[in-house]
Amino acid sequence: MYQEVATPRFYIDGLNWAFHTYGPNSLMDLPNAYTNITPMYPNPTALDVIGLTPTTHYIGDLTGHEDGETGRMLIHVDRGNGPRGMFDQGPYSKNWIMFAGHNFYTSKTKATLRTQNGDVIEPTEWINFSPSDGYFGSGNNYCNAERDGFSFAHLEVDDEFHYATDKWIDIRFQSSSVDGYEHLLYLGGLSMGRYYDMPTSPEIELTMTHLYDGITPQKTKGGAVLPLSKYKGSQKWVPNLANFELGAGPWEFPGWGGVTGGLNPGRRVWDLKFKYLSDSDLEPVHYNVDDRQNHSSWNEEGNWFSSVLFYTMGGALPFVFCPNPGDEYNPYLYKQPELAICRFNMNTFQRKRITKTLYDISVKIEETW
Fold first, then answer.
1. Which domains does the chain have, with CATH numbers?
2. Secondary structure percentages of the chain, helix, strand, coil, to 5
3. Pairwise CA distance, residues 275 & 354, whole Å
4. What's the pTM?
5. Nearest-CA neighbor of 154 among 128, 122, 196, 109?
6. Of 106, 38, 42, 50, whose CA–CA distance to 75 is shortest?
7. CB neighbours of residue 114 within 10 Å
8. pLDDT tens per residue across span 6-44
9. CA of 54: how far to CAs of 13, 84, 95, 121, in Å?
10. How far is residue 31's CA from residue 72's CA, in Å, rounded to a whole number?
């Protein structure tokens, strides 16, 4: 059921954490040999798409050329000085990527993800990012979007992905058309990292609030009360589309809308309490953090501290919150999981021991922009 809180999931943005930990110069690049970029205003750099604030767009020209080739653009994510623990390996990996504020559909853009060794990283579950066969080779090597707005996917990293040699990930964008028309790619945000599922669902006595802190009633001299609106919700990611909203699909007329993620519902706030968590659910075995390794020594299975608190810097960095990961994505029925960019509205994180080995925690999660 939409808006239901089940066992929530936290999508942690490893790129944003690496940006604030190591700085921008060693994280991302756009190699000139792989790009055909037309400078356009405001023309931010690729680094401007980091940070879960996809309102300023990076613009790339993917227009086809006279020789029959399409334009292409490549974003190069350097993991050599970044978080080696950003990706898990194998069939139980919990990796994700999101492209926010894009026009993949109208620009006829396709995307593919590859490791340094050339291996394709394939999506296993997705929203508006379905794999197809044969565009950049055999197999599910590229993905396309049926709508503008955002694309979201879980990724499976093969066991052959090596932390020592696969030090970067390449994300290639290429137009699927050489029809002679202009194909300008707009990309507002790029996020990737790992997600964490809470071990249990929260207590049934939870609180979910819509906070309209951007609207203030103002009384006129004549006694009428009028709303003074600074904002009703987050800024739009792309023209006429709110955050986590998808535009019209190929079978719909433009202007009819698409899968709605929210029509300015105010600022959502969740007050949640989780009971009977084990010590291993909450804390690592030690705090000798070495994020440039595979985390096998301190975060092998993942826990609340090493998977969430550490990579959000104690709640200072935003994350994507999903109250109920079980909600299905079905564009034909206009359904999608509830997603929100959030921060923790708290500075102190406590655990209260209720038995010798079990604890309770409470968190306040607030939508941010």
1. 11-195 (2.60.120), 207-367 (no CATH)
2. 10, 35, 60
3. 9
4. 0.86
5. 122
6. 50
7. 18
8. 899 999 998 888 888 877 665 655 443 333 333 333 445
9. 13, 25, 20, 24
10. 12
